[in-house]
Amino acid sequence: MFSLPPQDMQAIWLSAKVASAATVISLPFGLGAAYCMVFVRLPGKAFFEGLINLPLVLPPVVVGYLLLLLLGRSSWLGQLLQTMHIRIIFTISAAIIASSVIGFPLLVRSIRIGMENIDEHYLQASRTLGARWWDTLLTVILPLSGRAILAGMTLMFARSLGEFGATIILAGNIPGVTQTIPLAIYDYTNTPGGDSMALSLCLVSIALSFAVLLVNEAASRKLRQVPGR
pTM to 2 decimals? Predict the structure, then answer.
């Protein structure tokens, strides 16, 4: 059984904290985006879909640099935040934003697939009974999309645990503040004699990711047992 120094324990805690916050914060936006893509006739829907999926094809470093330009002091948004005494760059908030942007397409894609697979007859029955769109959303669409929502959250959480490129650009690599597991591993690989500690954190990362997948599978089985799903 190996032991980890306090700095590495902080990196593990920060990774879990960032991944959890990014997933929870992104969830309502992911639900809204998926709903619009499936059930709303939007002008320029292809552009909207492309914009959402763009972080999947862009290098994470590019995403991080664009976020840095958007939130930096020289931008209008950065200046606005500065007037409100809100600091984003090189804080844990920056790490959460970077993970949210990188993982958001995976969340939306999973939820969208789940919504597209809903039997149209359920929606027609809901409309026939006079349900408004939000009633249909809350009582039909979201419950029937439960497994897809869970899968999307799992994918995003796992992706956020491994996020490196955008995080190091936007949040930096500050031990105890923004240093997550991938950033700590990067430090160890550039430190003489740090191979063993890097391997230890790699094993921790694998264990965390595998645990997330197990939890997702167990929850999915529970949802399969619920009548109507």
Answer: 0.89
